[in-house]
Amino acid sequence: MANQVTRILWAVLMCAQVLFVVAAFFVARPHEDGIPAHVPILAGILAVISISTALGTAMYRRSMLVRPIQEGRLDPRTQEGLAAAFPHFMLTLALSESVGIYGLVLAILSGQAVYCIPFAAAAAALLFFHRPMSPALNPPPTGVDRALDSTPIG
Question: What is the pLDDT of residues 41-51, one digit of tens each?
């Protein structure tokens, strides 16, 4: 599944997590009266949404990408296969990215930049899990591939 476009998009989204944290430290301004009362509740809600996003994207990826690729119904090495797989791949990346955005929003609302760090770390972990270079997104070797791999050289 890893072609140049998917690798670049993945790398940009991964780098965005660092930028979210940096932006949080520049933008978040502590409130004079401390952290607003709604922030811990909002943090809990966003954490539950983030965990749901992680579980949902993993199940979606498995059903829409991994299974079809491993069963030979989808070959992302072909133009048609990549065109069919790309929207599913991008959806998993976009939803994973949203976790980092939750952290940035929480940091801005709370006035505490440190709220962004665990969400950005979780988003980076999700993005790593959904990376285009993942072995699960490579089609299984065909009979010809296996024969070529086992042929002694020399």
Answer: 999 999 999 99
